[in-house]
Amino acid sequence: MNSRTTQTVVRFSSPFLLPGFEVPQPAGDYRVDYDEELLEGVFRLAWRRIAAFVYLPAIAMQGSAQQMVAISMSDLETILEKHRQQP
After folding, report:
1. Which of 3, 7, 39, 53 has a CB 3.0–4.6 Å from the CB of 46, allowing a cystine?
2. What count of other Cβ atoms lies within 10 Å of the Cβ of residue 12?
C-alpha cells in the first residue's frame, strides 16, 4: 500500500498540554507531520491519516534539541478544536 507524509504548521494561541507530558507546551507555531495511506477507489484516489507527530519545541523557540512526539489523531483534533474555540 502506498503511503506519504504531509507537513503543516499549527498555531496555538495559548499553552496546551500534550498527553504524556506533565508540563504544558508554550503557545506558538508547531510543525505537525501526518502519515497517510492511500485508499484506492473506483473513481478517485483518497488519503487517510493514520498517524500524527508534533515537533517540540515551537518553531520560534530557541533550543539546540528538537524532538518528534507521536500523538493520536483524536488527541490532536481535541487540542486543535479547543484552541479554535478560544477568542
Report:
1. 39
2. 19
